[in-house]
């Protein structure tokens, strides 16, 4: 890949991204980190992050999206052995384990998942990853970034290569921290008064709505899940913002997760984050 020089202001942005990376330990912090200066370096609306899980002996995927996605797409993007992900891995390996751009329309076998993404305006995705130490055929981490009508430049692809060590270490730290917290909560069940979520003014209904907001659903989509009107959902969201002192939905989710408020109830779909 041809080397590209960056302007001084771009270098400053890169430095800020790198300096902030060591502070990322939780899932919501990773999301907030990728929504700041990171966006100026590599614009995206969806990031798919995968890490090798030794228990499952495979790469387990996680999705961070700042705009809503259909549920069928969300579920499909979590499947590492899908045709889409295998094509992404193939493009990355073809680029000799450097960041690469993949076209869903041209480079992936037609399937319902890619068709749904293309219908939503997605085509180009930029992918990269790292192999396990001493095992070049096994993936340690894998990342995919995209946004509607994206046309990723050579500079942006190179930017991802430059950021890869930070992204990899930050996401690994998130996985370890979240796993330890889950284990800590499980062990605290037998000890009354330990590991309880911090008290918040959020009601059970508001927690439920926040969980869907965290997953990127719109007010209309949440209303369909809960059987209430979109206006009612909007009113709940406004109340949540006021209670948490948040400026927007992403900040409300981040604050609620920091307060451990969302762990007070299971996810509506039965998933635990």
Task: Walk me through this protein's architecture.
This protein starts with 7 loop residues before the first helix and ends in a 15-residue tail after the last helix. It is α+β, with helices and mostly antiparallel strands and 273 residues long. Residues 188-198 and 264-273 have low confidence and may be disordered. Strands 2-1-5-4-3 form a five-stranded antiparallel beta sheet, with helices on both faces. Helices cover 50% and strands 15% of the residues. The protein is globular and about 50 Å long. It contains twelve helices and five strands. The chain has two domains: 8-185, 2-Layer Sandwich (Beta-Lactamase), CATH 3.30.450; 197-264, Arc Repressor Mutant, subunit A (Orthogonal Bundle).
Name given to the CATH homologous superfamily of the largest domain: GAF domain
Q: What is the count of structural domains?
A: 2
Net shape: globular
Order of helices and strands: HHHEEHHEHHEEHHHHH
Query: Low-confidence segments, ≥5 residues, pLDDT <50?
Result: 188-198, 264-273
Query: Major sheet: size, sense and barrel closure?
Result: 5 strands, antiparallel
Please identify the top-level CATH class of the largest domain.
Alpha Beta
Provide mean pLDDT, rounded: 83
User: Structural class of the secondary elements?
Assistant: alpha+beta
CATH topology of the largest domain: Beta-Lactamase
Through-space gap between termini: 38 Å
Total beta-strand segments? 5
> Which strand order do you get reading across the main beta sheet?
2-1-5-4-3
CATH architecture of the largest domain: 2-Layer Sandwich
């Amino acid at each position: 890949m041809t080397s590209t020089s960056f302007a001084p202001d771009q270098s400053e942005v890169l430095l800020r991204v790198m300096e902030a990376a060591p502070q990322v330990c939780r899932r919501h912090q990773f999301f907030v980190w990728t929504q700041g200066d990171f966006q100026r370096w590599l614009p995206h609306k969806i990031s798919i992050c995968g890490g090798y899980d030794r228990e499952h002996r495979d790469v387990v995927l996680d999705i961070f999206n700042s705009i809503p996605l259909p549920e069928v797409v969300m579920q499909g993007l979590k499947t590492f052995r899908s045709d889409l992900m295998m094509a992404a891995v193939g493009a990355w390996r073809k680029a000799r384990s450097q960041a690469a751009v993949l076209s869903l329309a041209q480079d992936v076998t037609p399937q319902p998942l890619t068709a749904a993404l293309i219908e939503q305006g997605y085509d180009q995705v930029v992918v990269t990853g790292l192999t396990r130490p001493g095992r070049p055929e096994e993936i340690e981490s894998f990342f995919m970034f995209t946004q509607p009508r994206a046309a990723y430049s050579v500079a942006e692809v190179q930017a991802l290569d430059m950021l890869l060590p930070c992204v990899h270490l930050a996401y690994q730290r998130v996985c370890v921290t979240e796993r330890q917290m889950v284990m800590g909560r499980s062990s605290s069940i037998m000890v009354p008064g330990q590991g309880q979520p911090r008290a918040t003014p959020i009601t059970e209904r508001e927690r439920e709505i926040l969980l869907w907001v965290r997953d990127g659903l719109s007010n209309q989509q949440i209303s369909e899940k809960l059987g209430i009107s979109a206006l009612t959902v909007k009113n709940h969201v406004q109340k949540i913002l006021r209670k948490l002192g948040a400026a927007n939905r992403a900040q409300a989710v981040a604050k609620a997760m920091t307060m451990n408020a969302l762990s007070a109830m299971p996810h509506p779909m039965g998933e635990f984050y």
